[in-house]
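Section 4.2 – Deliverable D4.2 (structural model, holo form)

The reporting period included a commitment to supply a predicted holo structure for the target in complex with zinc ion. Inputs used:
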Amino acid sequence: MADRKSKPKQGDACQVKGCGKEAERSVSGESAREAGLPVEEGLKRVHLCKDHYRQYKKGTKQDRVLESLGR
Ligand SMILES: [Zn+2]
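Output (structure tokens):
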């Protein structure tokens, strides 16, 4: 019950357009769009399935690359 940090409750579906698989994670809608995922505009949180979460992490890696280049 205190376990609702980033895990969506069971039965939520991935909110990437055309997917609809079982969601495993939820991320902010803004960062999902930055990662290049086709999600609905205006969503604050989007639920992602395992595959799309992986894609999300790939898409957001760029930030880290830029950070390490700056060092
Ligand atoms: Zn998905």
